[in-house]
Amino acid sequence: MAGSAPPSLLYMVKQLELAVRSRLDELVRPSGITALQYTALTVLERHDGLSAAQLARDSFVTAQSIADLVRSLESRGLVRREPNPASRRELRILLTEAGRELLALHAGPVRELEDRMVDALTERQTDQFRQSLTRAWQALS
């Protein structure tokens, strides 16, 4: 339709998120995990030993969903839980060696996916895109 308004930024961000998640699911499916599980593993790679609540927040899932997600990863030997020395009632979630190996297996293909996403951008535009996304996220956090 001529003269119609462009799609909203929220709509475009959601389109990008769905495209990334779909491609990521395709990449990690052969390892028997989902994009959400992969995301949780990458969060633990950067910040090992998180509580379930912290992992849920950083993985963009609900506290209710994280319990099932962690149980599934734990049954596969990709994470383990241990008591938090600072809080007896809290369990820390830690990445296992098998979890690290799985992440290493997918590091190249995931990097290629990210490169494909920004292929039409210059290095400067990619940096600006990253900064803009960070600022947008911070404004809503």
Characterise the protein shown here.
With 141 residues, the protein is mainly α. It is 65% helix and 11% strand. The protein has helices at 9-28, 35-46, 52-59, 63-75, 97-117, 123-140; strands spanning 79-84, 87-95. A two-stranded antiparallel ribbon has the order 1-2. Helix 2 packs across helix 3 (52-59) and helix 3 (52-59) packs across helix 4. The longest helix has 21 residues, at 97-117. The chain is globular.
List keywords for this structure.
141 residues, mainly alpha, 11% strand, globular
Layout: helices, strands, pairs:
Blueprint: H1 9-28, H2 35-46, H3 52-59, H4 63-75, E1 79-84, E2 87-95, H5 97-117, H6 123-140
Antiparallel strand pairs: 1-2
Helix pairs in contact: 1-5, 2-3, 3-4
Short description:
By secondary structure, this protein is mainly alpha-helical. The protein has six helices and two strands; from the N terminus they run H-H-H-H-E-E-H-H. Strand 1 and strand 2 form a beta hairpin.
